[in-house]
Design a protein that fits this description.
- The structure is a homodimer.
- By secondary structure, chain A is an alpha/beta fold.
- Chain A has 2 domains: 281 residues, Rossmann fold; 96 residues, Rna Polymerase Sigma Factor, Chain: A (Orthogonal Bundle).
- In chain A, 34% of the residues lie in helices and 16% in strands.
- Chain A has 11 helices and 13 strands.
- In chain A, helix 9 links the parallel strand 11 and strand 12.
- The longest helix of chain A has 19 residues.
- At the A-B interface, helix 3, helix 4, helix 5 and helix 6 of A face helix 3, helix 4, helix 5 and helix 6 of B.
Chain lengths: 400, 400
């Protein structure tokens, strides 16, 4: 029935995309691939596949599996009896097109030149990431998805998927996503791109680029987590008294930032970062409601209601976090309002968490029941309350 | 009576500091100066002098005057019938020691070498800025201050002044200041210093240093203003459609950031920025409560109550802004609680303003009555309410 059925166990795969793969802004990719990891198995009715889109920096490795026992980015959320219960669901996590962990992106070799794309990679949009994910699902022989899930950039991608492929999935979960990037998110990411892009264009000296990636990551981290969390965790703790006049790191919070920045700079491709970041800023769900004579990326009047009218979703779960300043709660309410405006049964859950935008990565106890209940295969989701639900994290309990 | 009486009109002055000028962390400066600007005149009782400390990036030019008609950084707050009413007060604004607008700092020539101090400038503390300000006041022949005022770094400096020179002033106004830097403020500033310091140490190529200063300023601006303000002002406005694949600035908010960053990089000395930023992170008011056998900058147990017991202030006004994430409201409450704990009559005012940390620079209508009432020369301040007062800005009304 399918040329590439999901294996009956977790597996990492490289799936070919249609070639040429045409991009929203006009470019094409030849021989492109999507890196995916598959958790769990399709059931006999083949109605339990869940497509999982990631945030900007994540790979498709969402959880450990026999072929890769390292913890995944959503390790505590995927598995038997977890938020994404593998007794019920087959989860397909896809590395974003444009990223650098198995999917084609600026770090890939351009077959036309034999060298890395780098800055010659064609302009990328969130819609392209959604299309590549859908193509990967088709390559696996899956014709109907049960749900599409995504957080952060993944939330944007899940929304793009819903409007590009109406009816392809029945349910949608968006966590700390957005119909479009907020002004301060654009400001923050444009600064990150400027830092990285400047180093890349100035000859691309490896040490300078690494530093630029480190700086950009620190800007990002400071936009993800709340000040209260940093204060509780690190306070004004210092590793040593003020010894040197120009001593560099000294406060514990500086060491923590260094650790995160070093890790990121070592594993993420700078141009991939640039392209994905830019795609986030340019994403605007409402352009999908424009009339045919308007170009898709004309930035004039938006047409949100017409865009959302295209959706063919049965149930949606929208989760936001009060303390998230990058994808603020108001944007989650906007998503829920738009979906409800189109008559889609939508649950909005408003969480409190000192982790801010990163809450979905750490607040396992808050997210697990929400996802498990919403994704039950039989009947309507039990979290389908009409009004917003507010739940609160007990706060950080361990050091990072 | 005085060798250097304030002029009977506004004037910019360079005042010699005691030489050698001994710094808190052990260094000394030879032939150092303080740049000050003086607004209004001492009255016959010589009891109306107000010492004004600035934020990190400001000069002593707080308002226009006959010799310099360019608008000052607190133009709308200083003058006849304004928040600092020059019919009553003589305002002495001092450029911070370590800055680059008339006071000795890393951009000054080291008399021992004949070249700029740069990275050889001795370690600077907020206490040194306070001491230089007090020395400038003494050089003007003023023996008793009516009030000391400061916002942001200036608020820290005003607190340092109060504990280093008990009784030197009767009243204290601190606006968006802090007893010590918050963890996220340390994280933000350490990143800014790392960006600038890396460029400076890598040979100090001017273009790289300028870019680094631009990046650091953008990090700063994003920590000053709230996302709501940016959203209302700029939204997702774009100056042009997405033309080039790697087009740089495109959203209006990016142009705005560029403008602010260019302006800052053109006028501020990179090492001065580095030193002042570092001083802010290291400031901890409570170390002044340590017993003699403890070193001043031992970072162990704090002694806030002993420190505040040293103060000889009659009235204090503490102003904070709910939307300020860099010097959060909790820190303003901490200041007020500490002052009240020492029996000092203290008014805490909690403002709402979308301008966040920058509110004191723009919210003239909110701040004017607060300052004018508190600084009346006769009688107790009329804003001396025991409980917190909350006032709200009508929001931004004009473009930047």
């Amino acid at each position: 029935m399918s040329a590439h059925p999901p294996e009956n166990h977790c597996a990492a795969r490289h799936l070919p995309l249609p070639s040429p793969f045409r991009l929203t802004a006009g470019g094409t990719l030849i021989g492109a691939e999507a890196g995916v990891e598959i958790y769990g198995a399709l059931n006999t009715r083949r109605d339990n596949a869940v497509l999982l889109f990631t945030g900007l920096s994540a790979s498709a490795h969402a959880a450990a599996h026999p072929n890769d026992s390292s913890p995944g980015w959503w390790e505590h959320m995927i598995g038997k009896d977890k938020g994404l219960d593998l007794d019920q669901l087959c989860v397909i996590c896809v590395n974003s097109l444009g990223s650098c962990f198995g999917s084609t992106g600026p770090a890939s070799i351009d077959p036309a030149t034999g060298v890395k794309y780098g800055a010659t990679f064609p302009e990328l949009r969130v819609e392209d990431i959604a299309s590549a994910g859908q193509a990967a699902v088709r390559a696996l022989g899956i014709t109907q998805l049960y749900a599409v899930i995504g957080a952060s950039l993944g939330g944007m991608t899940a929304l793009a998927h819903a409007v590009l492929f109406p009816g392809a999935a029945k349910r949608l979960v968006t966590i700390s996503g957005a119909l479009n990037a907020s002004t301060s998110a654009i400001a923050t990411r444009s600064l990150q791109r400027e830092i990285v892009g400047t180093a890349l264009r100035q000859g691309g000296d490896p040490a300078s680029v690494t530093n630029a990636m480190r700086f950009a990551r620190k800007v990002g981290v400071l936009s993800y987590v709340g000040g209260e969390l940093l204060s509780k965790r690190f306070g004004r703790d210092q590793t040593e008294p003020s010894a040197g006049r120009l001593s560099g790191t000294q406060f514990e919070v500086e060491h923590w930032l260094d650790h995160l920045a070093d890790k990121f700079a070592a594993q993420f491709d700078p141009w991939a970062y640039w392209y994905l970041s830019r795609a986030m800023d340019l994403f605007d769900f409402s352009v999908h409601g424009k009339t045919p004579e308007q170009t898709l990326h004309d930035t004039g009047t938006a047409h949100l209601s017409q865009a959302v009218a295209k959706l063919r979703l049965e149930h949606c779960l929208v989760i936001g976090v009060h303390e998230d300043t990058l994808f603020p709660l108001a944007q989650q309410r906007d998503i829920a309002t738009a979906l409800r405006g189109a008559g889609i049964a939508t649950t909005l859950v408003e969480l409190h968490s000192p982790y801010g935008h990163d809450a979905f990565l750490t607040e396992t106890e808050l997210f697990t029941p929400l996802l498990r209940d919403f994704l039950k295969l039989t009947g309507a989701p039990t979290t389908r309350a009409a009004s917003a639900t507010t739940r609160t994290s007990p706060g950080p309990t361990s050091s990072p």
